[in-house]
Amino acid sequence: MNIKDCYNFDDFRKLAKKKLPAPIFHYIDGGSDDEVTLKRNTESFSKCDLVPNILASVGEPDMSTEVFGKKIKMPLFLSPTAMQRLYHHDGDKASARAAEKFGTFYSMSTMGTSSIEEISNVSGGSKLFQLYIHKDQSLTDNLIDRCKRSGFNAMCLTVDTVVAGNRERDHRWGFTTPPKLTLKSLLSFALHPQWSINYLTHKKFELANVSHFTKKGSSIAKGVMEYINEQYDPGMGWKDAEYCIKRWGGPFAIKGVMSVDDAKRAVEIGASAIMLSNHGGRQLDGSRAPFDQLPAIADAVGGKAEIIVDGGIRRGTHVLKALSLGATACSFGKGYLFGLGAGGQKGVEAVLQKMHDEIRRDMILLGCKSIKDLNKSNVAFRS
After folding, report:
1. Fewer CB within 10 Å of terminal CB in the chain, N or C?
2. What percent of the chain has pLDDT over 90?
């Protein structure tokens, strides 16, 4: 099996599972606790049906939209994801170049394995930086200021990870950053020699944006949950978010919004966008799916802030359902990470091409000429 044999999310997942050592694969694939929310994120789309309009003379549909002050060629972009160097030796650089090729946003995590400056040098495309509030305020300020100097277009603050969710697969498989051999993981690394060779012969793993402040997670191996609990500020509040919005001074999203009240508060403090997200089902298990919360939040803040649905996106139809209910755009993480693990930049491009083609085809079948024409009449919920 190779990339050309992959036709959907599940195919890319299978290929990534074949190529990646078990601790690495399960870090991408897993969720928290019983993984109820992880499953629900995608299942939530199934109770909503699309209602097509016939004889609409669609021709070539306009898939473009505007988000964070930039026009993108399709209404889907790459969510911020950590430690991409583990999935392929080109890591963040491969994802950023692929996003630029498809005319959409690449989002960089604070826990990226390339630096802000490196990504700015390899990609002239639209770029979003994901910020976490650290206990060390000077680190937060440093990240914001470096993004300004490096020409990033937008920033988001992730607010649902003040402590780490209970990711049992990480415990079970002995996942650490950087990877270290344990009795549990040794066999899996040995059975994936190509990954191991690439890991050992390319640039040394480090959390490039924070390694000058702390070596934990770079040269000192840490479990991800342990790192989060040590470094992130569990006392983060609305004043911290407002401070970051003002210091950045540009398009800014609050990522992790799931309630109507929080959506309203985010707008009040100056956020230009909100990202409906439960961190891919990796934090509070049993929480609502972003798509389930979309209608109420769109009614509350639609037109006042851009709304991005982040979580469970696997099909072009998922994107169109979200846009019909008031989303400005969607973002996804697991899908393109499986592509990255399966084949580096070519794998990410293959995933984006599949999603691009699905959105285009489904718009034509739906009778929709332009993204801006989508509305509630295009969907119906089953009781």
Report:
1. C
2. 78
> Within a 10 A sphere around the Cβ of 76, how many other Cβ atoms?
31
Residue 329 has pLDDT above 80, yes or no: yes
Look at the alpha carbons of 104, 108, 112, 114 in this order and tell me if their dihedral is positive or negative. positive
pTM exceeds cut of 0.70: yes
Pair 368, 378: CB distance under 8 Å: yes
User: Which residue is it, tokens 């000192």?
Assistant: 220
Residue 222 per-residue DSSP state: B
Q: Domain limits of the chain?
A: 3-54+73-368
First to last CA, the chain: 40
- Confidence (pLDDT) at 225: 65
**Tell me: the pLDDT tens digits for 335-355?**
999 999 999 999 999 999 999
Q: Which of 336, 356, 333 is nearest to 346 (CA)?
A: 336
Q: CB under 8 Å to 140, separation ≥6 — which residues?
A: 131, 132, 133, 134, 244
Both tokens assigned to 233: 């500020």
What's residue 134's pLDDT?
Answer: 86
- 106-109 and 154-158 as β-strands: parallel, antiparallel, unpaired? unpaired
CATH superfamily of 3-54+73-368: Aldolase class I (3.20.20.70)
- For residue 275, list its beta bridge partners: 255, 308
* Positions marked catalytic: 279
pLDDT value at residue 88: 96
Do residues 27 and 341 make contact, with C-beta atoms less than 8 angstroms apart?
Answer: no
Whole-number Å distance between alpha carbons of 375 and 322 = 10
Residue 150, Cβ density class (10 Å: 0-12 exposed, 13-18 middle, ≥19 buried): middle
pLDDT for the residue 181: 63
- The phi, psi pair for 162, rounded to 5°, reads -70, -30
Using the structure block, give the residue that is written with the tokens 């739906």. 366
pLDDT tens digits, one per residue of 143-177: 999 999 999 999 999 999 888 899 999 888 888 77
Owner of token pair 């049993």: 286
Residue ranges of the alpha helices (H) in the chain? Answer: 9-19, 22-29, 36-43, 91-101, 116-122, 137-149, 168-173, 183-190, 193-201, 224-231, 238-248, 260-268, 290-301, 316-324, 334-366
